[in-house]
Amino acid sequence: MLLSLFVLSCKKDKDETTPEFDKNQLLTNYGTNLIVPTYERLDESVYLLEVKVNDFISVSNQSNLLALRSQFLSTYEAWQSCSFMHFGPSDNYTLKQVFNTYPVDTSLINTNISSGTYVLGAASNTVAIGLPALDFLLFPNKDLAIALSRINGVNSVNKKQYIKNVVLQLKAAITSTLSSWRTGHLSTFISSNGNSQGSSLSEIVNAINLDFEKFTRDGKIGIPLGVRSLGTPIPSKTEAFYSKYSLVLFKESIQQLKQYFNGESSSNIGLDDYLNHLNDNNRTARLSTRINSQFDIIIQKANLITNPISIAVISEQANVQKLYDELQKIIVLLKVDLSSALSILITYQDNDGD
Amino acid sequence: MKKMIFALTATSIMMASCKKDEPSVEEVPVATVFPSTYNFDNVSYTGQTKRLDMLEAMTAELKKANAGTQVDSSLLARMYSNSGNPFGDASLDGSGKQLKNKTYSSVGAFNASYFEYLMKRQGDISQFAGNTWSAGSAGVATSGTKSYFFDENGVEYTQLIEKGLMGAVFYYNIAEVYTRPGKIGASVDNTIVTPLEGTDMEHHWDEAFGYFGAPIDFSSSVTVNARYHAKYSKKGQTAGLETTDKVMNQFIKGRYGITNKNYNYRDQAATQLRVEYEKILVTTAIHYLNSAKSNFSDNALRNHALSESYAFIFSLAYNSDKVISNTDFDLVKSYFEVAAGPTTVPSFLAITVADINSAIDKLSSVYSLDAVKGSL
After folding, report:
1. Hey, is A136 helix, strand or coil?
2. A33-67: pLDDT as tens digits
3. Which of A126, A198, A350 sits opposite B296 (nearest CB)?
4. Residues of chain A contacting B237 with CB distance shorter than 8 Å
5. Splitting chain B (376 residues) into consecutive groups of 10 residues, what average pLDDT does each group show?
6. Could you say which DSSP state residue A21 is in?
7. Residues on chain B bordering chain A, Cβ-to-Cβ distance under 8 angstroms
8. Which residues pair with B194 in a beta bridge?
9. Which of B18, B291, B350 sits opposite A124 (nearest CB)?
10. B23 within some domain
11. Burial of B72 (0-12, 13-18, 19+ CB in 10 A)
12. Contacts B372 to A, Cβ<8 Å
């Protein structure tokens, strides 16, 4: 194994003692043990969601609504790690846009439901689909009995069909993504083992950064907190606004990202090992250690918050602000230090200027 | 320092290899070393530079709609034909040059009349530039710091006009006029040197270069001051296709061939230039389609990217030697269009990710870009 790597390599320095980091093993771990299983979990979860929707449509009672809601929330949790794996087939089927574009346009959803004619995949419907649409439709009220009577009220047949169609769209997107990984992309991913633009390592690092900056820091925390609106909080722009599940999803997403960074699996070879291999001992703490500690600090700050984020941005604003500040700090570590240590160019900023 | 070496032996293979320490047995045979920049005697393309500047001024006027201001369509029309001192800049107003009479104007959907229609309509509908865009109503859509004015179908006329004229004027003149026998063939004089302009044939080739939008020392490593297609050549360049360098090298080779009366070089360069230049359009189109996908749920960014890619795609038509067949061209275009009476108009309301993927896949397979389509 090692031998073949050396043959491929151009390096000539025979007296160099440090062995090359085995990026093949790293990518094999990410592809085989982390990414594909994550999509498999989501696929399984969406399958169960469809089952629960069918149950609820055939018998629209409280216990079936409860089961459907609970499956919905576990699918939303399963989604979190897919968010930062958004490249390759996932990008191709726009998994992120299909699954988690929020806030939804509730009047557009209602118009679609009452007309009964719509193409969920059309550009005009991107804010009327996905888990956020289900969040809106399944949680018209926190109280189960009231929610049930709303769902069973006006336009109930169209409404249930809409719920089902949204789930079917999710199913189609994850099925296609997973099947693409299984039928060829996994080997492409593992063999693309350079660090130039388009290489698998570059895709991993760019996807983590883009997702963290735009969808975690801004989407989950910053925008509801008001950092884009002169400090005026916008609670309605919170993830899972209607189910009030935002804080759980946020913590889940950080924990899953930490595991992903460390490549946690049976083989355990992650970005942390690659960083350690590159010997950045010129600082008091290794970069991998600093990143892991910062993940822990973020979780600690999130644990200080007691309400859903949509409420906390008003009632516990100082705590949410502290959390936001810690998110800013890890972006420096991930976007500047990590990418430069691994010689990865951050490419997602389109700097056309027009 | 970058040189293009044309050698017909194993030397090129040796260059690709990592080995450096073995002494070469063979010497490099006779090889032409082309200049590394477009630095020749008597290069002149001021007329092209004026037109590039004019398009810049028009684009600035068009973009007023993005900031909520109505666009003056009669001013746009006068800028297009350079009549009545429209630019407020004597070097342009008094130049005697204009974009309109250099625009492709024959049969087909995307000719000079089409652009005049777009300018008129931009002026008319930008009365709604104070509104927020929504599907079915013209207005401005915003994402972060970026704002774009779209028509009711999500189409950004600014891009159709700017990128479209880059196709209908710049690309059309390069691909169909200045690299063809009528301008560089046997009947064109290549002996009498006009001071500062060279021979007729040299001057025609320089005019083609002028439309590219590149400084004379432009390369993948020197990109400052590049604009228009030169700037967009970076998409293919960074994806590993070396588009920037290949286009630049063909311009240099052709001028070198003309100046040294080596007409093989000239003819090879003319053909190859069109091939490489076409890649600028198609790689940029795919780049924006990827961007539309990545930003699919963002009205501002999605519609902007689709408008850009639509204009780069229809620009492929301005080269009679285009690689894509008319059938495939119509197919790709159809993903962006809806029927409107006897004709079609661009509309991005009903487009799906599957449509965008179909367009990308068709383009990448026609242009053999499957390996890089995801990195563009």
Report:
1. helix
2. 999 999 999 999 999 999 999 999 999 999 999 99
3. A126
4. none
5. 42 42 54 92 96 98 97 97 96 96 91 96 96 96 95 97 98 97 96 95 98 97 95 93 97 97 97 98 97 94 98 97 96 95 91 96 97 90
6. P
7. 18, 135, 154, 238-240, 290-291, 293-294, 296-297, 302-303, 348-354, 357, 372, 374-375
8. B198
9. B350
10. no
11. middle
12. 198
Contacts of A122 in chain B (CB under 8 A): 349-352
Written as one string, the DSSP assignment of B248-290 is: HHHHHHHHHHHHTT-HHHHHHHHHHHHHHHHHHHHHHHHHHHH
A85 three-class SS: coil
Q: Is residue B336 part of a domain?
A: yes
> Distance (Å, rounded) from C-alpha A234 to C-alpha A236?
6
Second-level CATH architecture of A20-192: Up-down Bundle (1.20)
Domain limits, chain A: 20-192, 194-354
- For chain B, the domain total comes to 1
How high does pLDDT run on average in chain B? 92
CA–CA gap between residue B138 and residue A341 (Å, rounded)? 47
Range of the domain at B104: 39-144+151-376
Q: pLDDT per residue over B216-270, tens digit each?
A: 999 999 999 999 999 999 999 989 999 999 999 999 999 999 999 999 999 999 9
ipTM above 0.85, yes or no: no
Judging contacts by C-beta atoms under 8 Å, the chain B residues touching residue A126 are: 296-297, 302
Name every residue whose Cβ is closer than 8 Å to that of residue B122 and which is 6 or more positions away in sequence. Answer: B62, B65, B71, B73, B76, B157, B158, B161
Residue A33 in tokens: 């043990």
Cα–Cα dist B231/B238, whole Å: 12
In a domain, B340, yes or no: yes
**Under 8 Å CB-to-CB from A159, ≥6 apart: which residues?**
A113, A137, A151
Look at chain B and count its residues.
376
Reported as type and span, the H/E element at residue A287 is helix A287-303
